[in-house]
Write a structure and sequence with these properties.
Layout: H1 2-21, H2 52-69, E1 74-76, E2 93-95, H3 107-123, H4 126-153, H5 161-164, H6 173-185, H7 189-205, E3 223-225, H8 227-230, H9 233-243, H10 246-263, E4 274-276, H11 288-304, H12 312-329, E5 336-337, E6 347-348, H13 349-365, H14 373-384, H15 406-410, H16 422-438, E7 439-444, E8 447-452
Antiparallel strand pairs: 1-2, 3-4, 5-6, 7-8
Helix pairs in contact: 2-16, 3-4, 3-6, 3-16, 6-7, 6-9, 9-10, 9-11, 10-11, 10-12, 11-12, 11-13, 13-14, 13-16, 14-16
Length: about 450
């Protein structure tokens, strides 16, 4: 009887602890390297060196989720019935978005498609690039139909409105960068025509400040968003590579440098989400995904910017300051917080993936010292724990506008269908695979020492 009472008391204490500590307390103890004398056993934390096979298996689950979820159908969006006659457009015709954004033309899918191509490059697994090319071909195989629909009824949300009626960087930049990468594999003239349309939009029609900085006219009349660095810089950088015209690279570097002057904290290297021209002093919110977009944009630019470009050292400094700030704010599980400087905000997946990718890329390309490699390693292990068996990813913050108070950011929900984290997670895994291939790892004094592998 006393034993039963003791068990009840213990279970009651444990239940109370769960209420205080949350779901993480119920997770199994984490893993550490067997050679560590004082191993880390925090719940949910795997402080071990992953294998390439383990990373690839996680990436494959995400790929399989995309493959089985993408419908490749044109339907009557009112009834859900398939459209059989593709010669006469109707206003209600649209791509089937009921399972999600999978074959839509928008920025999260642009990041995902670019990530599929990157993963194929790193792993040699053509199923990733096959998926990306199939998606682009589906879009262009049906684009004339939806253009006819737009001429008759106006551009429709389910009929590639963002492609047919480009209005802002979200409509074209990230997916345009992916399209340039796809064009390198498949020189389809339809791809090139759209690439040139996007280039003309960004160069000549997109709203800019007087100094040439790309900006928005919402939520304030002149608003600078850190997000827009990834919506523009990778496309401009890839356009420079495609055309061998330095003007595109110059513009990409200008965007990063001029945005950094307004948005990047000089002391911490973190990026404020937004800057409003009509607001002094400007409130600052270091939203994780904002810093993620910015540091990924810098990494993408450095990947193609020539060593002798006059702005390379300034871009490299911006990247390094960002990486230093990111490393300093990583949480004890390997993930990063929704608000980077607020440790009581939740741990968020998409920003964590972006930081993991950027730091691993920096280590791989020699922009960062190998001492940063364990940051990416721990980041990947934490990310992998958020990829479900069915390939869906937990903890991704939904779409988020430039807001004016911390409460908004604290309370943005997460959603399994939020696509913003899927591409960056693929990118992170692929880049960590490349990192493991390029370094020998020594385990001493309970930590990991990366040494560049002899070529």
């Amino acid at each position: 009887m006393d034993g039963a009472l003791t068990a009840m008391r213990i279970s009651g204490v444990w239940a109370a602890a769960l209420l205080v500590l949350g779901p993480a307390a119920a997770q199994p103890l984490g893993r550490s390297e067997q050679s560590f004398s004082q191993p880390s056993r925090a719940p949910g934390v795997d402080y071990v060196l992953p294998t390439e096979g383990e990373i690839k298996a996680t990436l494959d689950r995400i790929r399989d989720y995309f493959v089985r979820s993408t419908p490749y159908r044109v339907i009557d969006t009112d009834s859900g019935a398939p459209i059989e006659d593709m010669t006469k457009p109707t206003k209600s015709a649209g791509i089937d978005l009921r399972p999600g954004q999978f074959n839509d033309w928008d920025y999260p899918m642009g990041v995902a498609l670019a990530a599929m191509l990157q993963t194929a490059d790193v792993t040699g697994d053509a199923t990733y690039s096959d998926y990306a090319l199939r998606n682009f071909d589906f879009i262009f195989d049906h684009l004339d139909y939806f253009r006819a629909q737009a001429r008759q009824f106006g551009p429709q949300a389910y009929g590639y409105r963002r492609l047919i009626d480009m209005r802002e960087l979200d409509d074209c930049g990230a997916i345009g960068a992916a399209l340039i990468r796809a064009y390198g594999r498949k020189p389809d003239p339809r791809y090139r025509a759209t690439i040139d349309t996007i280039a003309a939009h960004i160069a000549h029609r997109q709203f800019r400040m007087p100094d040439g900085t790309l900006a928005r006219q919402r939520p304030q009349p002149v608003s600078l968003w850190a997000d827009d660095l990834y919506m523009s810089v990778p496309f401009l950088a890839r356009m420079g590579e495609l055309t061998s015209q330095r003007v595109w690279l110059d513009d990409a570097a200008r965007q990063l440098i001029q945005s950094s002057a307004r948005l990047q904290d000089p002391a911490t290297g973190l990026w404020d989400h937004a800057w409003f021209e009509n607001t002094t002093p400007d409130p600052k919110f270091y939203w994780g995904r904002a810093s993620g977009w910015a540091i990924m944009a810098a990494a993408e630019l450095l990947s193609v910017l020539p060593e002798n470009h006059p702005d390379r050292e300034r871009v490299l400094d911006i990247f390094r300051r960002g990486a230093q700030g990111v490393a300093a704010t990583q949480g004890g599980t390997g993930l990063w917080h929704q608000l980077l400087d607020k440790t009581d905000s939740y741990l968020e997946t998409s920003a964590s993936a972006m930081f993991t990718f950027a730091i691993a890329r920096g280590v791989n390309r020699g922009w960062l010292s190998p001492v940063y490699a364990p940051v990416a390693q721990a980041g990947w292990q934490a990310l992998a724990s958020r990829v479900r068996a069915d390939g869906r990813i937990e903890g991704i913050c939904v779409s988020t506008t430039a807001a004016y108070d911390a409460v908004y950011y604290y309370n943005r929900p997460t959603d399994l269908g939020a696509m913003q984290g899927y591409g960056p997670t693929l990118m992170a895994g692929a880049e960590v695979i490349a990192m493991l291939r390029g370094f020998d790892v020594q385990r001493t004094l309970n930590t990991f020492h990366y040494r560049k592998r002899a070529q």
